[in-house]
């Protein structure tokens, strides 16, 4: 992009985030470079670093936004199965966010905003399992099993690993069927 084609963004931070999320959805975190991102967003090569300091700072911002969006989406669902289906739907609708949210080593793990949004999501997931009763130990096991099922299904669906099993069916609805067999 030539200097003449560059333009001023009203919300430069948002423009960079959008370009990052799009790149992550298309090619994954390995393909994300600050310089290529600036080019894609139509801004100077220094603009992303000005707003996010470094690549990990940008990915932390994307992951933080992802945890917030996911917690918001799941809070609007009722019950364990609907929240699990909402988790799979989120991964399909926000693959750029999903690909970095749970990938160790990409983020500034000590970031307060990231920790707060992760905690908020954990609270929503905890309440899904608590609704089914049982002691703390039983709930802890159920939480891990439910999260593993939803996250594993979502990750496999995103990567194409379930294409044959899905045979053209909607992954969200197929997840409901699978999860209902595991969590009647």
SSE order, as H and E? HHHHHHHHHH
Number of strands: 0
The percent of residues in helical segments reads over 70%
Instruction: Count helical runs.
Output: 10
Mean pLDDT: 90
CA-CA gap between termini? 55 Å
Secondary-structure class: mainly alpha
The best one-word shape is globular
Strand content: under 5%
Instruction: Determine Rg (CA atoms, Å).
Output: 18 Å
* Main β-sheet description: none
Poorly predicted residue ranges:
1-7
Descriptive report:
By secondary structure, this protein is an all-alpha fold. The protein has 10 helices and no strands. It has helices at 12-27, 34-41, 47-52, 55-75, 79-93, 95-101, 112-130, 136-159, 163-166, 171-182. Helix 5 (79-93) packs parallel to helix 8 (136-159) and helix 5 (79-93) packs antiparallel against helix 10 (171-182). The chain is globular and about 55 Å long.
């Amino acid at each position: 992009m030539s200097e003449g084609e560059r333009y001023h963004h009203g919300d430069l931070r948002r423009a960079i985030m959008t370009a990052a999320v799009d790149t992550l959805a298309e090619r994954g975190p390995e393909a994300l470079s600050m310089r290529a991102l600036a080019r894609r967003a139509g801004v100077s090569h220094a603009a992303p670093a000005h707003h996010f300091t470094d690549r990990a700072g940008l990915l932390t911002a994307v992951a933080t936004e992802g945890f917030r969006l996911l917690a918001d989406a799941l809070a609007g669902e009722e019950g364990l199965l609907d929240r699990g289906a909402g988790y799979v739907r989120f991964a399909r609708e926000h693959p750029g966010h999903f690909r970095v949210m749970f990938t160790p080593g990409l983020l500034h793990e000590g970031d307060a905003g990231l920790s707060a949004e992760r905690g908020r999501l954990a609270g929503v997931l905890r309440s899904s399992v608590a609704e089914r009763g049982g002691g703390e130990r039983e709930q802890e096991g159920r939480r891990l099993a439910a999260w593993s099922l939803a996250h594993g299904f979502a990750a496999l669906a995103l990567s194409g690993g379930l294409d044959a099993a899905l045979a053209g069916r909607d992954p969200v609805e197929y997840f409901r069927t699978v999860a209902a067999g595991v969590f009647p």
